[in-house]
Amino acid sequence: MSKFKLALIQLKAGLDKSDNVKRAIQFIKSAVVDHQASVVALPECFNSPYGTQYFAKYAETIPGPTTDALSAAAKEHKIYLVGGSIPETSDGKLYNTSTVFGPDGTMISSFRKVHLFDIDIKGQMTFKESDSLSPGSTFCMFDTEHCKIGVAICYDIRFAEMAMCYARAGCKVLIYPGAFNMTTGPKHWKLLQQARALDNQLYVAAVSPARDEKASYVAYGHSAIINPWADVLAEADETEQIVSAEIDLEFLDKVRNQIPISKQKRDDLYKIESLAKTIPANQ
Ligand SMILES: O=C(O)CCC(=O)C(=O)O
Question: Could you report the predicted ipTM of this complex, rounded to two decimals?
Fold first, then answer.
């Protein structure tokens, strides 16, 4: 139980929602059959193109048709499925929401993107997710027979404290469905994953849509899995594909024993306040 296979589906999401979902389900089968994965993840906004102009049009309630399909796929293949994210409508608001399903098809957790992607790099990349979306305000962790896994979405990876909270709560793998762009992707996408993996001595996986040069928002691709030593175990190029890697929890323990930063940190000088009351110290 100390080893398991994680697969990331770098799906090319187009304008046809039902086709996106249908193809995601086909790829999930291939992640299980061809990669022997027991944990599978889809990208951010996998049932719609990514962009503020699309969120309302593609939004669904949860449960709804897309999450029903994910639930059935998790049950059919007896896997943990991190359902990327979809635009969710609830109480007149829109959210960027990830859902997680267990091997019996039950939705075991869900997550609304906490940090909305509002940036302005003049002449290169301006995006304001908060024009149409509302932020969530809860975390998302789920237990498997292997370890606890934490989920957050894309821009959330830039916030080191959030990953630290997950690590402190005992997560050994963090999965970020994401869709970095052609400005920040080449510079920061892999570096951020390696930083979070190294800071917290855990596995980090980030799963992007495949690049579509004709889309209004061009995703960088390069879905990747990083180990607690910050090695890149698997990395896609920009095309539609599955990447997978073995998660080895004995290796994680070895890294933590060799460089025992979680025992050496000076909680008397600095500490994470926000979840200190509700999340126990490192397990
Ligand atoms: O942080 C970035 O550079 C990209 C973030 C992003 O694309 C997102 O949150 O959807």
Answer: 0.97
